[in-house]
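Hi there, hope your week has been kind to you so far. Would you mind checking whether the tokens look sensible for this chain? I owe you a coffee for this, so here goes:
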Amino acid sequence: MFGGVCILLPLLAVSALMSSGGSVAYGLLTIALAGSFVAPFPVFGAVFVALAVYLLANSLTVTASPAAIRSVRSIFGICLRRREIKREDIAAIEDRIAAKYQSLFSAAPQFQLIARHATQPKLSVVVAENLAGEAMMAQVRDLIAGHAGVDVRRE
């Protein structure tokens, strides 16, 4: 909604300025003001709308089994990335406070869980994200660890 307002209001302002008519100086002043103050708002609005659509369409599907943990990142149902980490390669399931999901309006931190690879950190897999609060994070971590047969406290 914020993105739509950012797009609509400047368009209304520009249409009001353009329809007034007047001298050449008025036209130049209108172009200067619209270009420097009004024109950036529809761009910001479009960015906010695109970000909102991305956040709604983005999904992470995780399957935990005794053999491995698999994750699939999708946007609009289209698979972008598949990751898998075998049970014997999991050193631990770590929790991290995800800085990009923090909110000024909530005191509870947002966590993500990562199945850390024992020897190659680049092969670690995100198994949960945007978990509100420590209790939710612990519950999901224990659920995934139980299905995968991983000892959470193992380092």
